Amino acid sequence: MMKHDDFSTLAVDNQDNICYISDPVTYELLYLNRKARELTGIDGSLAGQKCYEVLQGKDAPCEFCTNHLLEAGKSYCWEFHNLNFDKMFSLRDTLVESHGRKLRLEWGVDVTERRKEAAALTDKLLLEETLIRCIQTLSGEQDTQAALDSLLAIVGEYYAANRAYIFEFDFDSGTINNTHEWRKEGVSAEIDNLQGIPLSAVEAWMRRFEQDGAFFISCLHTELDPQSLDYQILEPQGIESLMAAPLIQNGRISGFLGVDDPSINILDDRLLRSVCLVVQEDLEKRRMLSELERMSYMDILTGLGNRNKYTVTLQALEQNPLKSLGVVYLDINGLKAANDMYGHSYGDHLISRTAELLKDFFHNDVFRTGGDEFVVLCRDIERERFEAMLDEFRSRAENEEGLKLSIGGNWRKGEFNIREQIVRADELMYIDKQNYYKSLPAGASNRRAGEVQQLLDDIAAGMFVVHLQPQVELRTEKVVGAEALVRRREASGELLAPAGFIPTYEKEGIIRHLDFFVLETVCSALRRWKRLGFSLPVAVNFSRMTLLEHNVVNRLLEVCARYNVEPGLIRIEVTESLSRIDTPTLKKLVSLLRDEGFAVSLDDFGTQHSNLAILTNIDFNEIKFDRSLVSGLGDTPKSGVIMEHAIGMCHAFRRTASLAEGVETPLQKDILKDYHCRYGQGFLFGKPMSMDEFWDWYQQRMKEESEEPERAAVPPDSMEF
Q1: SS3 label, residue 440
Q2: Given the DSSP bridges, would you call strands 538-541 and 478-489 parallel, antiparallel or unpaired?
Q3: pTM, to two decimals
Q4: Helix and strand counts by DSSP (H, E) for the chain
Q5: Helix (H) or strand (E) holding 78
Q6: How far apart are CA 658 and CA 648, in angstroms?
Q7: What is the pLDDT of residues 608-646, one digit of tens each?
C-alpha cells in the first residue's frame, strides 16, 4: 500500500495549489494536499471517502467527470465552477502510475477572484460601450424623437426588458406624460394610454428618487399596495417588475427613464443612471437649440414670425403649392412720427397692438416683416371667408384709438405665383395709403407723403387741365359723348401729354389723386351743363392702381353725389393692364360699377398686350379699338380683316358697343361704317379741347345739327348702356 509520503512526492504537498489523488475506477479519494484539506475541512483519515462526495457534495460520480479523457504523460486542462465551494477553478488532470496502479492526479488553481475581476471588467466594458452607443446615438441624430427612440432601444436591449420609456413632468398642469417609448417585438404599445397622469401617482417614486437616486421593483404584487394609484396604472399593463432613474433639471426632478420587466443586469442600475444624465443634458441642449431657433424666427416685440420665418414659410409654400391663398399686407401709418413725438415706447405699443389685432383675426402665418409692415398668409381659404375676415379686420382697426393702418389684401386660387401675389397686396396697401398721405400737413417729412403733397399742390395751382375730345355715332355723325383727357401745363406754357407724367405717378402709387381730380372736374362741368339743360356722357380714364383701391366704387359714388351727377353720365375707361387683377376681383369690380349705373369701357383694345381672355370673363359696356388698328384701314388688308372680325365680336356680345379711336380720314370712317362699328373718335370729328372750347364747339355743333333737318331726322344711337 502507498503511504502518504509517496503521494506527497507525486503531488508536491507544500505548493499553494489545490491537489488531490483518487482512484479513477473506484473514485476512492487517496490524497489531499494541505490547501485541499483547508478547503474541504478534512483533517483526518480519507479511508472510505469518495472524491465526488468530498469535492462536489454529490452522492454519485459526477456527470462531468473527465476520467475517461485522461492519459498517462498528458495533461487535460479545463475550468469549472464548483458549486459545493462556490469557487471557480482552473484544473489540470493526468494519470500517474504508482506501484503498478494508475491513479488520477488533479491540480487546481482558485481563479474565483480573477474571474470576478474579469467579469467585472467585461461588465464595465459592456456598460461603457453601451453608454458610448447611447451618447453617439443622441449626438448623431438631429431628430429628437428618432434619437430618443434609438437610445431607448439600446437601453431596453441592455436590460433585456419588454419596454423602455421616458416620462416628463408638466408642473403647470400637475401631470406626467409618457413622451417616448421603445418596446420589444410582440409587446403592446402603452404610450397613448399614459398621458395626463396626475403627479400624485408618483409621489412615492419621487421620495425613492430623492433618497436612492434609482430603484428596482422586483415584484409589483408584493412591493406595491394594490390600492395605490401607481399599482392601478402598472398592473393593467401586465408589468411584473421595473427599474427607474430620475431626470433632473436645475436640481429638480423633471421626469424619469425606466424599463419594464428587465431580465438581465437587474442588480446594476449604473447604465440607467448614466443614461438619465446623458438624456437630460441632451434634452436641455435640444431645448436651448429649439429656443434659439424659435427666437431666430420670432419677432421679440410682438411674438409674431419675423422676416426669417416669413422667408422660410414662403419657400415651403412654393415647394408645396396651395389650392388657394389670401394675402394681407399691412403698414402702420405715421409710426416714425409717433416715435419722434411720443417716444419709442409708444411706437412699440402701436406695433404690439397691431400684432394683437392680427393674431385675433388671422391666428396663424402672421409675420412682422419690417419696422411697421406686416404680412398675413391665409392658406386654403375660401374667397368669401377671406374677404369677410379682411372687412371685419378693417372695421375693427378703424375703431382703434391712435392706430391708423393702411391695408391691402388679395386672394388667388388655382395656379398662382405667391411672390407676385404678395407684390400685388403690397401695391394695394400703398393705394390704400394715399388717403393717409393726403391728410398729412404740408411739409411732412415722409418722402412719399411729400410726393403726394406736391401733386396736390400742383393740382391746386392749376398745373393740370382737362380736355374733352368728342365721340360721335358713325351712322349719323351726331355727338353722343366725350372723353376726358388730362394734360400737365409746364412752366413754359407747353401742355405735356399723359405719357409724360402718368407712368411716374403710377410707379409712385399716387395716381389716384390725379384720377379723382379729373373725375371731379368732369362732374363739375356736367353739373353746369345740366343747369343749362344739356346732358352728355363723358368717359373718364382710371388707372388700375386707383380701381384697386378699397371701396373705390363708394368713393366714385360720393363724388357723383357731391356734384349731383347721375352715375350713368360717367363711363369708366380702363386699359387692358386691368387684366393684371385676378379675374374674380376684376369681375366683381366691373359688376359693382355697372350695378351702380356706371358704364365700363375697355380702352386700347388691339394693342400688343391685347388679352381676349378678359372679354371671355368680363362684361364691358364698350370696347374701344386702339388707333393702331384704325390707322391701317384702307392700306393694310390684314388690318381690315382684324377690325371687321373684332367689331363682329362686339355685335356677338349683344350689349357691348364698339368705338374706334384715331379716326382721321373719311376713308377710315366709311370702312368702319361698313363694318358696322357703332362709334368713332378722332381728329376727323374733333380734336381734344379745353372745357370752355368744347362747350362752345358743342353748342355750335348742336345748332348746326338742328339746322340740318334731313340728318336730324335720323335719330342717333344712345350712349346710355
Answers
A1: coil
A2: parallel
A3: 0.56
A4: 26, 25
A5: strand 76-82
A6: 9
A7: 555 666 777 788 899 998 888 888 887 778 778 888 888
